[in-house]
């Protein structure tokens, strides 16, 4: 797990792009398998919207984690004996 965290930490934009592309592919596959009576262009629009929502959720989670991590480090620095 630590190896994955360090890779994601070093390749932030690649990780976000991979999540976005994967969610577009998954959404397209889901709507194709469902045999929805939508045109391909409408399926692509919906897939993009799903991918965008997932990407925003992931970015929000990462921002919260980063904030939590930094506030804990600041708190530890303040409590260190001098």
Automatic annotation (TrEMBL):
Domain of life assignment: Eukaryota
Keyword line: Membrane, Transmembrane, Transmembrane helix
All copies of domain HIG1, residue ranges: 1-77
Cell compartments where the protein resides: Mitochondrion
One annotated Gene Ontology cellular component of this protein: mitochondrion
InterPro entries in UniProt: Hypoxia_induced_domain, Rcf2
Gene3D superfamilies for the chain: 6.10.140.1320
Name of the protein in its database record: HIG1 domain-containing protein
Single biological process term from Gene Ontology: mitochondrial respiratory chain complex IV assembly
